[in-house]
Amino acid sequence: DAYLTAIDAANPAFNAYIAVTHDKARAMAAASDEKLARGEGGALEGIPLGVKDLFATEGVHTQACSHILDGFKPRYESTVTANLWADGAVMLGKLNMDEFAMGSSNETSYYGPVINPWRAKGSNADLVPGGSSGGSAAAVSARLCAGATATDTGGSIRQPAAFTGTVGIKPTYGRVSRWGTVAFASSLDQAGPIARDVRDAAIMLKSMASVDAKDTTSVDMAVPDYEAAIGRSVKGMKIGIPKEYRVEGMPEEIEALWQKGIAWLRDAGAEIVDISLPHTKYALPAYYIVAPAEASSNLARYDGVRYGLRVPGKDIADMYENTRAAGFGREVKRRIMIGTYVLSAGYYDAYYLQAQKVRTLIKRDFEQAFANGIDVILTPATPSAAFGVADQDMAADPVKMYLNDIFTVTVNMAGLPGIAVPAGLDARGLPLGLQLIGRPFDEETLFQTAGVIE
Ligand code: GLN
Predict the structure, then answer these.
(1) What is the DSSP letter of 121?
(2) What is the crossing angle of helices 198-208 and 443-453, to 10°?
(3) What is the C-alpha to C-alpha distance for residues 298 and 301, in angstroms, rounded to an integer?
(4) Could you tell me the pTM of the whole model?
(5) Whether 177 contacts 185, CB under 8 Å
(6) Are 150 and 192 in contact (CB under 8 A)?
(7) In this structure, are residues 103 and 206 in contact, taking their beta carbons and an 8 Å threshold?
(8) What are the residue numbers of the active site?
(9) Which residues cross the membrane (predicted)?
(10) What are phi and psi of 441, to 5 degrees?
(11) 204 SS3 class
(12) Which of 72, 153, 400, 411 has fewest C-beta within 10 Å?
């Protein structure tokens, strides 16, 4: 009830929730109360969570914040949310996001932008919460849920976490089932939690992760007790500092933040090692080929027949066109055009195939670093703090928006786990985050190291 009251009071200012499931929340909470009264209950019994609109929730509108999925109510539950409910969590509602998870500011949502609960000192200007999981990050930051589900294809958990002073982890590709999560770029998509602190993120991820026969890319590996890793000493651990992340034009305060993180880990007994990830500079351009290519294929299913919106036409082809023209927003259309272009005959070899080769090289850079004994890699999470809503520079040039993902996309391209942890404030009093990147399926070490930074 406290959360529902807080949402009703504060959500109009933030637009973090696009739907609040009051009745469902109360029914689930009542069931939890009964279980707890009997001395039963799961790891998350009675904990109220928000759900990114990308996760299919049975009988509850699931639209990926797109107009094209208007009125779509799945008859099934995503594996991730089913796992959370099985552990006793309570669903508060669906959270705003960039349309089909495409964006870095939550401004491509059909339901309008999310406002970051943080403001710069002495300013009233609205800031973005980051994206695409902007609703998740804002809701956690504004205390409108105890934690939230999120997804990360190229930074969409870690960048919004960094912009809102919250913790977000993208697990290793395969750690979490993608079944029932609306697909953006299937070889990159992974779900994970955004939470208030490292411990909450550890508890949530433990519940979300599972092998799943319905997602053959999910991996059959025991899910460790992540919470138990927090507080373990990092003494003797090797922390890699990749020189390629010191990008041109990086603000001094980001460099200072990075140095602060290095000092904290060194003081805790870790060994700091300079490393090189030579193909880093190709990650962003390669990502913006691979992700749109997969997206253009995944989005072909929205044709006005099977789901949501239908805009009639004189024949079926006309109906497809009218539906897709009206149903998809600008950024989604841009991705479809880029994706179909790089996959088309004649350009496939020049773009898509090259990008896939680059992807392998990026992965090998990391493999080499880990083979050399590096346990964790430390980088800034984002090249800046949160920026203003309707930033003119970014509106005029989509590539400027894409540059937000410069430190995060490498991790998706390599399939590795990455966590963003709040590490301080910039000169304007806005949160900044550091990122830790780990070995495949070694999320434990990320939680252990993040515990030192937090
Ligand atoms: N900002 C990136 C994009 O727009 C990443 C999005 C995501 O991780 N879902 O593609």
Answers:
(1) T
(2) 160
(3) 7
(4) 0.98
(5) no
(6) yes
(7) no
(8) 52, 132, 156
(9) none
(10) 65, 20
(11) helix
(12) 400
Using the 8-state DSSP alphabet, how is residue 185 labeled?
Answer: S
How big is the CA angle at 174 (ends 168 and 179), to the nearest 5 degrees? 90
Q: Nearest C-alpha to atom 5 of ligand 1 is from which residue? A: 154
* pLDDT single digits (tens) 415-431: 999 999 999 999 999 99
- Is the backbone of residue 262 left (phi > 0), alpha (psi -120 to 50) or beta? alpha
DSSP state of 306: S
- What type of residue is 94? K
Distance CA 194, CA 136 (A): 7
Alpha helices in 146-190 (DSSP H): 158-164
Residue 161, classed as helix, strand or coil, is: helix
Q: What are phi and psi of 202, to 5 degrees?
A: -65, -45
Residue listed under structure tokens 């993608």:
178
Question: For 264-321, what is each residue's pLDDT tens digit?
Answer: 999 999 999 999 999 999 999 999 999 999 999 999 999 999 999 999 999 999 999 9
Q: Would you state the structure tokens that stand for residue 394, as one six-digit string? A: 């970014």
CATH 3.90.1170.40 fits 2-229, yes or no: no
Rg (CA), the chain: 21
- Sign for the pseudo-dihedral over CA of 178, 179, 181, 187: positive
With a Cβ cut-off of 6 Å, ligand 1 is lined by 101-104, 132, 152-156, 184, 291, 405
Q: 98 and 65 in contact (C-beta within 8 Å)? A: yes
Q: What is the ipTM of this complex?
A: 0.97
Query: Phi and psi (nearest 5°) for 384?
Result: -160, 175
Q: Which residues contact 96 (CB under 8 A, 6 or more apart)?
A: 15, 16, 17, 18, 53, 65, 106, 109, 111, 112, 114, 134, 135, 138
Look-up of token digits 């695409």:
132
For residue 110, the model assigns a pLDDT of 98
* Single-letter code of the amino acid located at 386: A
The answer to whether the beta carbons of residues 327 and 320 sit under 8 Å apart is: no
Q: How far is the centre of ligand 1, averaged over its atoms, from the C-alpha of 383 (Å)? A: 15
What is the best residue among 66, 100, 104 to mutate for testing ligand 1's pocket, by most ligand atoms within 8 Å of CB? Answer: 104
Q: Where are the alpha helices (DSSP H) in 304-386?
A: 316-327, 330-343, 354-371
Distance 217 CA to ligand 1 centre (A): 20
> Tokens 């027949």 — which residue?
305
